[in-house]
Design brief:
- The protein has 3 helices and 2 strands, in the order βααβα.
- With 98 residues, the protein is mainly alpha-helical.
- The protein has one domain.
- Helix 2 packs antiparallel against helix 3.
- The longest helix is centred in the last third of the chain and has 27 residues.
- The chain is rod-shaped.
């Protein structure tokens, strides 16, 4: 039987958890959810740090931030590559262009 003076276990921050979910699905959505996951991850990290042990989820928030930044770098880099190299995405087997 639990004692009434026993401390509650810290619960997982909903912001950190949401940020991680958004970051994980961001490669499937062309990086769009990474734009949301990054600030939500930062907010989750701040929330956990300010909670003084009542919340956990620092790892979730940091992972979300890292994944979001990586996805954004790859997405922006790929978009810039395609913009600067139109041959990379043109149809080669479409026949003559005359």
């Amino acid at each position: 039987m639990a004692h009434s003076d026993s401390p509650e276990a810290p619960r997982l921050s909903e912001l950190a958890q949401s940020a991680l979910l958004l970051a994980i699905v961001s490669p499937l959505l062309a990086g769009l959810s990474a734009l949301v996951a990054l600030p939500v991850g930062v907010a989750g990290l701040v929330e956990v740090r300010r909670s003084r042990g009542r919340l956990r989820g620092t790892g979730h928030a940091i992972a979300a931030i890292i994944i979001s930044v990586m996805v954004l770098i790859v997405t922006i880099g790929g978009a810039l590559y395609l913009i600067n190299n139109p041959v990379a995405w043109q149809c080669i087997d479409c026949g003559p262009t005359q």
